[in-house]
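Final paragraph of the annual report: two paired records, presented back to back.
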Amino acid sequence: MDNNKLIPTVGLFAVLFFLWTNWTAEQAAKAPQQTITAAADQNSNIPTLDNSGAVVGGSVSSQAVPNLSVDGNVSTASTTQNSGGIISVKTDVYDLEINLQGGTIQRVGLVDYPVSLEQKDSPYDLLKTNTPDTFQLQTGLLAANGGVAPNHLALFSAEQNSYEMTGGTLEIPLTWIEGGIEVKKTLVFKKGEYDFHVKQAVTNNSQTEWSGSYYGQFTRVPPPSSGGFGTVQSYTGGAYSTPEEPYEKISFGDMEDSNLNINNVGGWVSMLQHYFIGALVPGAEENNNFYSRNPAANTYTLGMSSRELKKVAMGQSAEFVNHVYVGPKIQDKLEALAPNLQRAVDYGYLWFIAEPLFKVLTFFHGLLGNWGWAIVFLTLSIKLLFYYPTAVAYRSMAKNKVLAPKQAEIRKRYADDKAKQQQEIMKLFKKEKVNPLGGCLPMLIQIPVFISLYWMLNETVELRQAPWLLWYRDLSQQDPYYILPILNGGLMFLQQKLNPPPADPMQQKIFQWMPVFFTFLFLFFPAGLVLYWVVNSTASILQQRFINKRIEAQAAAKNK
C-alpha cells in the first residue's frame, strides 16, 4: 500500500466502521415488532415440569399451575387478609416496588443513576411496568406430581405496605398458604449492593410429601429504537453463559424464531441494555434449565428453572434461593458474582483487548479522580505503547514527503507508461531505502486497539453523567457546543499537511474531505469518544512533526 493512501484508507475504514456499527445495531433493534400490543397472556410464560424436572412447553397444565381457575384468572382461595397491592421498598441503592401478585419485582429505580442531570432526584427505572418497554423480574415455585405451589401469578400477603433499609440488610417477607403448603418468599437486600436473594421456604403441613423446584425469569418489551445518525447504539436483548458458551447472546429475534432450552450446571442468564443488566445467577454446582418464551408479540421471557427437585416430607421444610443482579454493568461487581458475567459489558469480539484498556482507564481514574482526565492519560499511554511502530510509519511518510518532488518528476517523465512509472518509483524507494509498506502496516496493527477503545468507552457505565471540565458535564453525551468535534477536524486537517498529498486526483479529494466527514460524524458522538480522538490527534501531530524535522534535516545534510 502506498504511503500516500494510508490516511484516506484508515479514515475511510473508520467512517465505514462507525456507519456499519450503527446500522447493524439499528437493524437489531428493529428486528422485533415495534407496535405495542396488548399485554401478554401471563399464563403462556409460566414454565412447567416434566417428570425429570425439566422445563417443557409453553402451555400451562392445571397441575403445574394450581393457583389458576378454569378461566385462567388468579384464584382468591389462597389469599389472606393483607393480600394484593404494591409494596414500596427503599434501600441506599434502590427505590423499588414489589407486586404481591407473585412477589414480582415490577419496578427498580436506581438511586445513584438519575434519569438525567436535569432530573437528579428521579432514579433511572431499570425494571418498570410502563410501556413502551415493560421489564419485570418474576419468580415462583413449580410443584411435581399434582402438588400445589405459588407461581408468579399467585397472591401473597405481607405484614407491611412499605419497607426502608436502616441497617446492613433489609428483608421483605411475603406469605402464601394453600392446601397445607406454606411458602414464605423473602427478598433480601444488602447495603450498597445491586445483587440480592429471593428465598422461597416451603413448609409442608399437608398429609402427603411435597416435591418441586423453583424458577426465575425476566419478561420485557424491547424499548423502541432511539437511534438516529451518529447515535451510538448498544445491544439490547438476552445473553447467557454455559461452560461451552462463556458468553452467548440471544436476541429478541432469536426468541421469536425458537425457544431456548438448555440444561446446564452453573452459568447465568440475563437481559442486557446499554449500561445496565438484569441477571439470574444460580449456584456454581446447580443443575438448571435455561429457557426463553415469546408469549405475545413484542414480549419476551428469558429465565432459568432448577432441574433438581426437592422433596419435603410431612412436617418438614426446604428452601430455594434465586441469586439476582439488577443494576449497572460495574465490571468488578459482575466479575465477583459469577464467571464471565463481566462479559455482559459488551465490548464485542475484541473484548480481550478492551477489558485491559478498561483496567488501565480505571487505574488512572483512581489516581486523578476524573474520568475525562483518565481518558486523556489512557490515550497518551496507548500512544506511548505504539510509539515505536508509529515512529516507523511516520519516518516512512516523512521520507516519502522528501522524495515527493522526485516521484512527481518520474510520473511526469513516464506519464504514458504506468508500468514504467511504478518500476522507476520502486527503484527510487530501493535506492533511498524507503519501505513502501512502512507507513501502512504499523498503523494497521493499531486498528484492533482503536475498535476496542471505541466499544470500551461506549459501554463504560462509569462515564454516564461523568463530568470532565467546563461545560462537559456528561462524557456519555455529545459535546453541547461541538468544540471537540470541530477541534478534531482542524487537527486532522493540520495532520494532512504533514504528509505528501496523493498523486491520484480522486484520492486527493477524499483526503481533503476526510476532516469534514469526521467532524460531521463526531458532532453526534459522546464527548468521551471524541476526547480520545482529539488527544490522539494532538499527540500524533507532535510526534510526526518531530520526525519530519529530523528527516528533513538529514536530507538537507545529505544534499550538501
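The closing record of the year follows.
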Amino acid sequence: MLFYKIDVELSGKAEEPEKSECRDRATALQAKIGMLFEKCEYSCHITIADIIDKKSRAELCAAVKAGMMTASILEDFLRVMDLEYHSFTFQEITFKAYFDLLRLSCQLGYISSYDAVVRKLKIDGLARHGHSGLPFSEAMILGDNTRRELLARAAKLLCENLPVEIERIYQGSKDEKSSGHPVHYLLQSDALDLRNKMLRVLLRALYQNGRIASRRYCEVKFVPTDYLSASGLKALYESCGGGTVVVSFAEDEQEESDHARIGADVIAELCSVMRAYRNRVLTVFCLPKSADKIKEVFLEHLGAITLVPLAEDTAFGPRAKNYLRSLAGQHGTKPDKALYKPIAEGKGYSAGDLQLIFDEWYDHRLKTTVFTQYADLETANKQVALKKPRGSAFEELENMIGLAEVKKIIRQCLNFYKAQKLFREKGISTERPAMHMIFTGHPGTAKTTVARLLAQIMKDNDLLSVGDLYEVGRADLVGKYVGWTAPLVQKKFKAAKGSVLFIDEAYSLVERDGEFGDEAINTIVQEMENHREDMVVIFAGYPDKMDGFLQKNPGLLSRIAFQVPFADYDAAELCSITRLLADKKKLSLAADVEEKLHPIFAQALQKEDFGNGRFARNLLEKAVMKQAGRLVAMEVDLVTRADVSRLLAEDFDAPEIMGK
C-alpha cells in the first residue's frame, strides 16, 4: 500500500467562503468520496484534506492498495469532485503523515469517519499501534543513484556479499509480467550505522529496479520477551504492500542465548505473517552478527523462504585501514599515521571497532589540529582516570597503619570498575566478576574493621548498592535440626544483599556436625553464585585453618576472587597504632612513650596470638586508667588541660602475662 500527499492548483480564486458554505460543500463531496471508495472495492481511497488559500489550492491524501498512484486516477477523482484545476503534483509519504491528513479531512467534514476508512483498508490495527503492542518506525528511501554509484558505496562497506547482490538485482527479471519477491534478506552487523548504510544501498537498488514499488519502509524492533500483536503485525504488512518491512532483533549474544527459546512463539508469529505476505512485502531481517541462536529460530519458521545473507565482515590489515581512510574521507579530513597505529597485524576488526578507533582519532585531531585553542584541556576520560576514589572510608583505610597488601587489592577492585567505565567502548569485558574474598590473619589484625570500610568504599564508588556489614558465625548459619541450615543461610544472604557478608572463623562450619556443616557450605556456594552481581562474601580466620576449609568444597575456591593476607604488625607499627588510637581519643603521647612501648611490643611479638591491634588498644586503655589515678593524686587545682590530654611513659606498663 502506498500513501500520497497531493497538491492541486485550482482554477481561479474566490473570496473566503462562509463556514456554513464550507460545511455544505464538504457534505456534498463526502458522498462522492464514499461512492468512489466503494466503487473501487476499497482498494484505493482519495479524499480532500483541505482547501486553502481562498480556494486556490487543495490538499489531498490517498492510499492505494494495488499498484501506484497515476495521473489518470487523480484526474478521474477531480472530475467527479467537480474541481477545476491547472496542475497537480503528488508525492509518496509515510502512514503517519497520511493518517494526520486523513484526520484533518474528517474534521473538515470531507469524510465521516477516518476509523471507517482505515478499517476498510484493513490497516485499522496500524492506526491503533500505540495500543496494540506493536511499536514501529517509518522512513523513506531518499534520492536516486546509478548502478555505478551504488556499487561504489557498497564497496566501501564491510560486506563482500553486498556488491554481489547489487549486481544480481540489476540483472532484472526474465518475465516482466511476474510479480513477487524471489528472495528476502538477512543483514547481520553489530554496528547500527553500518547496518543502516547497508540497508539503504540495498533498498535503493531494489526500488530503482522495480523490485519494490514503495519508497516507504517500516521497522519493527523487538526482543524475545516482547509481545507482538498478531493483528498489529498483519496491519503493518498490509500497509507495506509493495514496500518493505525491516525486522530488527535488538539484543546482544549473551542475552539472546538466554532468551532464544523463550522468544520462539514471538518469532513463530512474526514469521507466519511474513510468509503470508512474502510476495507482496519484502522483509529484511536484521540481527547482531553473533546472534546464531536467534537466527536458527528464525530459519526454523521460514520454511521455503530463501534468505540472502548480507553479513558484516571482519577486516584485517589493509582492509581495516581502507575502511578508516573512507571514514576520514566522509569527514573531509586527511588521515595520518596515528589513525592507523591501533591496527595490529593479524587482528580482525569489526565496523564498530573501526568506528571507535576513528572517533577517538578524529576527536583528538579536532582539538589539537583544527581548534588548537582547546588543546590543553583534558578529556572526560582522563579526568575520570585521575579522580580519587570517593568517600571518607577510603581515606580512613589509607590512613590505617600497615595493611599494604589489603590496600593494594582494594585499589585493584576500584581500578577494575573504573576501567570498565573508561574502556567499555574499546571492548573491555563488562561482565562483573565475583568479588568474594578470604581474609587470613591472627586476631587483632583489623580484618573486621577493613571489611566494614570495604563495604562503605564499595557503596561510595557504586560497586555495592547498600554498603552495610553483616557479621555472622557458625551459630547464625548452621541449624539445630535437619533442613534448618539451608533456610538460615538463604535468609542471611537475602538480608546482606547489596552489602558485605562477613563470615568469621568460617572453618568452624565444618569442624563438627559434618552433615549440617556440609549443607551450610553447599548452600553458601550456591548463594554466592546467585548474588555475585551485588554482594561480597568475606571468609575470615587463621591462615592454616582456612586452607583446610577451602578444600572442603571444590566449588568454593573457584568463587573466591581475592585471598587477602593480614600480617602481624611489627613493633614500630604497633607504636604507630597506639599513637593513632590515642589521637582518636584526643590524647597525645609524651616524647618518651614510644621508647617505653617498643620493647613491650617486641616481647609481645614472641607470643602466639598476642592480639596485635587489640593488644595495643588494651595497653592504651590501661594507660588511660593509670593516668586517671596519677591525676587524682596531684593537687587538683594545679592540673592543666595539657596534663589531662597527655599520656606519659610511666602510664604504660607491660601486662603481667608478658612476664610469665
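The radius of gyration is 39 Å. This concludes the annual technical report; the extension proposal builds directly on these records.
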